[in-house]
Amino acid sequence: MTIRTVVWGENVHEQTSQIVADIYPRGMHAAIADTLQGDDISATTATLQEPEHGLPEDRLAQTDVLIWWGHAAHGDVADEVVERVATHVHAGMGLILLHSAHFAKIFKRLMGTPCNLTWREAGERERLWVTTRNHPIAAGLPDHFELEQEEMYGEPFGVPEPLETVFISWFQGGEVFRSGLTYKRGAGNVFYFRPGHETYPTYHDPNVQTVLRNAVRWAHNPAPRVIGVNEAPNVPADQALEPLEARGPRLHRDGEEGFR
Amino acid sequence: MTIRTVVWGENVHEQTSQIVADIYPRGMHAAIADTLQGDDISATTATLQEPEHGLPEDRLAQTDVLIWWGHAAHGDVADEVVERVATHVHAGMGLILLHSAHFAKIFKRLMGTPCNLTWREAGERERLWVTTRNHPIAAGLPDHFELEQEEMYGEPFGVPEPLETVFISWFQGGEVFRSGLTYKRGAGNVFYFRPGHETYPTYHDPNVQTVLRNAVRWAHNPAPRVIGVNEAPNVPADQALEPLEARGPRLHRDGEEGFR
Amino acid sequence: MTIRTVVWGENVHEQTSQIVADIYPRGMHAAIADTLQGDDISATTATLQEPEHGLPEDRLAQTDVLIWWGHAAHGDVADEVVERVATHVHAGMGLILLHSAHFAKIFKRLMGTPCNLTWREAGERERLWVTTRNHPIAAGLPDHFELEQEEMYGEPFGVPEPLETVFISWFQGGEVFRSGLTYKRGAGNVFYFRPGHETYPTYHDPNVQTVLRNAVRWAHNPAPRVIGVNEAPNVPADQALEPLEARGPRLHRDGEEGFR
Amino acid sequence: MTIRTVVWGENVHEQTSQIVADIYPRGMHAAIADTLQGDDISATTATLQEPEHGLPEDRLAQTDVLIWWGHAAHGDVADEVVERVATHVHAGMGLILLHSAHFAKIFKRLMGTPCNLTWREAGERERLWVTTRNHPIAAGLPDHFELEQEEMYGEPFGVPEPLETVFISWFQGGEVFRSGLTYKRGAGNVFYFRPGHETYPTYHDPNVQTVLRNAVRWAHNPAPRVIGVNEAPNVPADQALEPLEARGPRLHRDGEEGFR
């Protein structure tokens, strides 16, 4: 069974910046998808410019893990698509947010926080340290690895306390950052991974590629998508699991929907 | 120093249901505020029907802890007010969500999940068990206490894994529910507390009142409100904390704002 | 690749109580191992009475997941074996603690807390509710399932806040209990699962058996066992990752071991 | 009401190293206690060399928060005293572990893990970043502060996932470390704080002193010490909260103690 993965790319700077186009000639999304392809992962791509940003309902229903890279055009992503993705995450689809996707609508939607940070584009050295040796996302990695040129992101990072901190980055200019964080939202596994500024060849780095493949496997929830993920069913007194006689005043009639 | 608390009430069923009006003649919000008043807490109220639902910017700026009870009219709460409250929570305002506020826009906004559950309005017995003896929200409580008549809420509760589980409820009809959950969102402490269906005298119960007072004290963050809670400042290379020479290609000019 | 699982059983009441012997003629450990055997799991057993309790170093080195059931003879387990198991957990071996193993030396060793609870042996009904729908340990289970006769365990349960709460139990007599809790200790995944009093046929229940199989798969860490799991290596200044000149006073000479 | 704080110091290097004696003429424990004294905190000291290491039962019973600094003589601390301290933490005493106390018996006892790390004594620059702006332990601090000379501690740090990560350190030599971590163990709040190598004047630093004072206030649990913190009481069927008739086979007679 392969993990059906969709790599979503904003695909803006690849079209407007020669620097980015030179590093990722077919787009960042295509480069990431190429990296993932393998015995247990099948990866396709989707971009902002496609109808429904390439993420119609029937495609998401066939997606096990969605990877999201966006930067310049967060505001152009339709709210309807964001909500659709959120619902699929709640129902069990894995979601991996890369780098500047910290400000993607879908990440802020799922975190409930500003998701802000400090930043510097100076091509400085980043060193990622593994803080949770047993984590499947760190499988096969050394205790640390370096990216010779990266954008700096610095703490405090405006996210909720994670389930687990998997990586912490050291930056040459003096900052640190929680670079790999796991969350669960409903039945969906969510992973944020920091590296990946578009002017550097980060997604060609073998260690980064290992993280991406590991993250897809970790985020994959093989259970069937949860049905009725927003429902709040009424359990009438005569269907209670224990003998129960209804008593006291009531607002709702039998079988009535609750308020929302 | 008193903790400036605002109790927000939807104030709908108090006006439309004689049952509710009889239990809470001046409204649930007023009953809760009366309970909180004391040496270290000063409590006022706000309702849906007031301009800006009683929560204009200058009032939130003077609020240490906001308590929220809503049920029938979640959809009538203006998105602008929801966003304003979210920003204050991120900046340090405490927020306590009561009972049917699990479906309040502000709770779903901060959790990023469906926040759904199962329910039954049968006036059954609820018994709350303390699961974290050291938690300040449980101070002064026995290991368990009962509410003879309450609405049932059942698991699975569609929320993120909490920071701490403080209470778990047993229901006569056979369900369980995580009834007291703590979260942090930005600099704000968030507490969800389950009991409080409007057709029962729950907020007149001494143990429930103890929880409310404890929760206000716990949620209060005495630090000054965080300024610029959504900002993502650029730290130029020449202002880096360590000696740093910028190198490599760049998308941004010095001093430029980042993308959102 | 099969997950090499060892089911450790105290094997006392099976020898001294006809009731237990009738339910588990070959011992609880054998019954659990039989349940686990399958395409991806190979299960063997070990008991208190064997030399080194059946858990010598070379066997643990070949064990992916260890399951532990003990009750009457916690005090008879050698401290040396407990420490050996702890080291293997830290290095990546999965550990599943069943029922009365809440008081096993190895569980208290890994939790750092009293691990106490309230209890009642009255053959009452227990109903387990799934609280984390996405958790692999709950795969294939309905939202709740019942055990018609079980011992009661009640909150507060003296354990650290878990990574995730997977199950919560409802008891006929009025208590609740966090019945499925996940932890990580070093590189090892740890799961506590409540049901399994020896006088009831709990491990013959299909839902319980599903939990056990799921838990083995979840606890399995396929990464190689961590080497030197207690080491605290000195990184001399001349081997630092960044250029560094040692300065200031020192307690330690180059290459010296740290204090313990 | 003042928070009764005891600062425990190993008091070895102060006696054997002129460097340390020059920085802390009356001992590190006395310097830390001096820092804490104030309107809401009263601080005394205890050392390894005193009978029962200065921590007899009646003194711990009068201690709200215990601070622990040890390094060269972890092995000389009596197991009986360690267990006594652990019991008081479980019952509600706060505990703050400083620097090399990561290898103190009491920290390993409460964490259940190796608590190891990498290290280098080179007097390098450490910069601590606040990662949880709302945390009371960070009250009054800037987003980062520096210690010009400190020992390096590096990840991976062999501790359980914390409740909250409050500080992360950047080191000149290229490492990072989770320098401020909160835990709860039973009713006791536990805080680990990294800085404080004895050959540098770390505890004379104003920001470090602010952290220590904040940490004492955070760790203080004003609730009365929990009685019978290791008890596991039997709740007989005829005293159950809900009507319950005992059924099925039993191992225990009424009123019997459980196994341990």
Helix coverage percent of residues of chain A?
10-25%
**Main interface: chain pair and counts:** A-B, 69 and 69 residues
User: What spatial form of chain A do the alpha-carbon principal axes imply?
Assistant: elongated
- How can the largest sheet of chain A be summarized? 9 strands, mixed
Could you report the average pLDDT of chain A, rounded to the nearest whole number? 96
Report the oligomer. homotetramer
Q: Which consecutive residue ranges of chain A, at least 5 long each, have pLDDT under 50?
A: none
CA-atom Rg of chain A in angstroms = 21 Å
Strand content of chain A: 25-35%
How would you classify the helix and strand content of chain A by structural class? alpha/beta
Please count the helical segments of chain A. 7
- Counted beta strands of chain A: 9
The strands making up the biggest β-sheet of chain A line up spatially as: 2-1-3-4-9-8-7-5-6
Strand/helix succession of chain A: EHHHEHEHEHEEEEEH
The N- to C-terminal Cα distance of chain A equals 39 Å
